[in-house]
């Protein structure tokens, strides 16, 4: 079969690899009909995620058709159309039972690697390094789905992939980001990053009762998407000072909640950006935390920071005094997709949400290297790429 394989920083190839096989009674094999390049895949593409090995199949946002099931899978049959969450949960451990699926105790067979860095193991994620499980990713013609008897969502046959695909990852990530804000009536929410996750975080914040949502980015096409589809007010951080603009737009009080939908490759301006870029290249810090710094200073007193952008290691020059003295609450994590997917599917079926607006490019799987390039470089107004095996 064909699959997108990682070969180092800024290099992916579409290669012929062996088809996956059932390895465990709770496995299923899925023929991929649509898979997306996620913003967090760019962290892999850029070479920022450790424990990747050359030839690893990447990708974690996908849906498709069941073509084989293990003996322990009783809820699926051949021909079922399903969407699969990017995080892998066993369904039976303490964390899965509490709907904290991305903290699963049992799905990562390489727990010893993660424990050295994080102290404890978290769930595996498809195609996201050997420290995070070493599972083959879904930018391929077929993928093995472990623990297929829990978590996956069966979807109707008559709705286009483009409306359903993103309940695999981008929509629940944005939705969870808004939920972690504990939004109260009248709240103002600021969202850094107008990619797919940021767009869905903004829409979700309004669903949860926010009075105003403010979007922060530097690309006009992304800001326009936030204005048009998420009904957000917008700030271009290359044109105005974000902190000053937020004070003016909130009557001087600052946002009640701030959502980071950017993560470890955040861009700043001026000397700070040069500092972070240099330290990251020299491996003196692993992640660029510009958004974290800006949120901690810009957030209003007693506010909440919701961090959904991916961070992998260590950051520098964090204004923790601002967070402590203003009494800020930090909430964060990989998304618990299985908790939200049925709810989000129902919103789509009820006509309350059509997420397909974020797609700017659909490409055959063979064109994945091109898709990664234009997504990373923000060429051709690229915001979201869907690959069709």
Automatic annotation (TrEMBL):
One Pfam family it belongs to: ADH_N
PANTHER family per UniProt: DEHYDROGENASE, ZINC-CONTAINING, PUTATIVE (AFU_ORTHOLOGUE AFUA_2G02810)-RELATED, ZINC-TYPE ALCOHOL DEHYDROGENASE-LIKE
Protein family according to the UniProt entry: Belongs to the zinc-containing alcohol dehydrogenase family.
Required co-factors: Zn(2+)
Iron is among the record's keywords: no
Lineage, uppermost ranks: Bacteria, Bacillati, Cyanobacteriota, Cyanophyceae, Nostocales
Domain Alcohol dehydrogenase-like C-terminal: 196-265
Residues annotated as domain Alcohol dehydrogenase-like N-terminal: 25-156
Presence of keyword Oxidoreductase: yes
Molecular function (Gene Ontology), one example: zinc ion binding
Protein name: Theronine dehydrogenase-like Zn-dependent dehydrogenase
Keywords of the record: Metal-binding, Oxidoreductase, Zinc
Organism the protein comes from: Cylindrospermum stagnale PCC 7417
